[in-house]
Write a structure and sequence with these properties.
Strand content: 5-15%
Structural class: alpha+beta
Low-confidence stretches: none
Shape: globular
Radius of gyration: 18 Å
Number of helices: 6
Oligomer: single chain
Number of strands: 7
């Protein structure tokens, strides 16, 4: 169990609504759909209404500073079945990238790989007390595109299981290009934080509002009891 999963959830009942994708940059079809993830009859481009309102606010803040720039939505609502699919995919991708086979690994080696995966992927839990963040409709993975429609270089890919995925990875670099990556990550963080979101400690692209991770981070900052308002959809 991760620390934030101990946070109490008081579900507010707010609806899951479709994101007006024409207002943002999106990839169609969705990256996980292309892999075969089982979304069923609901698009991944959904969020709780209050979370969507804050995302719209974040985009407005971005465009005040950089006219023509857009938030690109990589992923939003994720059913638990999709969470399970992507956890398995990430594990198998690690095996392939490192030219390993499951049969060649000891139990301890397999466990070490799973621990790497779960640094970046939440457990696909069906327990109402410990829902994966994306399954609440309160978490979103985002990046930026510039006024020409080109992706802004963040110095790492979304979902990359690597140290460079940590938000502050380039903070102390003296390399000018890497400082540019850091500036872009800081810009994304700033506009999302000003709209009320909290960033995942391990992922420069993951933000949430109102879920257990958000509540845990608020609690760490304020040293007062905070509850989550969004449980699993």
């Amino acid at each position: 169990m991760k620390p934030y999963q101990q946070i109490r959830i008081l579900e507010c009942g707010e609806p899951l609504v479709a994101i007006p994708t024409y207002q943002f940059a999106v990839e169609t079809p969705h990256p996980y759909e292309k892999l075969g993830a089982p979304y069923g009859d609901r698009s991944p481009y959904h969020l709780r209404q209050g979370v969507l309102d804050r995302l719209v606010s974040a985009q407005a803040r971005l465009q005040q500073r950089y006219p023509g720039w857009l938030i690109q939505i990589f992923d939003a609502y994720r059913p638990i079945a999709v969470q399970q699919f992507m956890v398995n995919y990430a594990f198998n991708q690690l095996l392939a990238d490192r030219q390993l086979t499951l049969s060649s690994l000891s139990d301890a080696q397999q466990q070490a790989l799973w621990e790497e995966v779960y640094q970046f992927w939440a457990l696909p839990s069906h327990d109402p007390a410990t829902p994966p963040p994306h399954s609440t409709g309160a978490a979103i993975d985002v990046t930026l595109v510039d006024a020409t429609g080109q992706p802004v270089d963040m110095g790492g890919a979304i979902d990359e299981i690597s140290p460079c995925s940590h938000p502050d990875y380039y903070t102390h670099s003296t390399d000018p290009q890497q400082q540019t990556y850091h500036h872009h990550r800081q810009l994304l963080h700033q506009i999302m934080a000003e709209a009320g979101f909290c960033r995942h400690p391990n992922e420069w692209w993951h933000f949430s509002y109102g879920d257990q991770l958000w509540a845990w981070q608020q609690q760490q900052q304020s040293q007062t009891l905070v509850t989550a308002r969004y449980g699993a959809v």
